[in-house]
Write a structure and sequence with these properties.
With 139 residues, this protein is α+β, with helices and mostly antiparallel strands. Helix content is 44%, strand content 22%. It has a single domain (6-138), classed as Orthogonal Bundle (Arc Repressor Mutant, subunit A). The strands form three sheets. It has a two-stranded antiparallel sheet with strand order 1-2. A two-stranded antiparallel sheet has the order 3-4. The protein is elongated.
């Protein structure tokens, strides 16, 4: 397993949260993931805390993340999640898809740029050109 944290993003085709997309540096609990999202992508891709925990369970059922129960003496027990290889494949497939969804309160292009380290330099350059062309057409 990849030692990474995940948060989630909106999947328009399913009208709900489905795929791991916020891949960060460390495994994390739902609380950790919510805090990470708040510090990083929340300005252009809001992640409601109310949906996070049920979606982590769903992602685990899909095999995109693996959760491990962690007992704590002074705090309630928690579950720590890591992205699986299948989760990374799902992320890379999304990054390789042409275009970006246009949603009222979310910017998929910025989210894809945020994950640039998971793309080849050629794909990142292509995405930047695509974004520029799209912006020029909307002027």
């Amino acid at each position: 397993m990849i030692r990474t944290s995940i948060a989630l993003c909106y999947e328009p085709a399913h009208n709900d949260l489905r795929h791991p997309r916020l891949i960060a540096k460390h495994p994390g609990s739902g609380y950790d993931i919510a805090a990470l999202a708040e510090r990083s992508i929340a300005h252009f891709w809001p992640l409601p805390k109310s949906q996070l925990y049920s979606e982590l369970t769903r992602l685990e059922d899909l095999g995109f993340v693996a959760g491990t129960a962690v007992r704590q003496d002074r705090f309630p027990d928690k579950r720590v999640y890591e992205v699986t290889e299948a989760g990374l494949v799902a992320l890379r497939e999304w990054l390789d898809n042409q275009g970006f969804e246009r949603l009222r309160s979310k910017n998929a292009a910025l989210l894809k740029f945020f994950f640039g380290k998971f793309m080849t330099p050629e794909r990142l350059a292509s995405l930047l050109q695509e974004y520029r062309s799209d912006a020029e057409q909307r002027r």
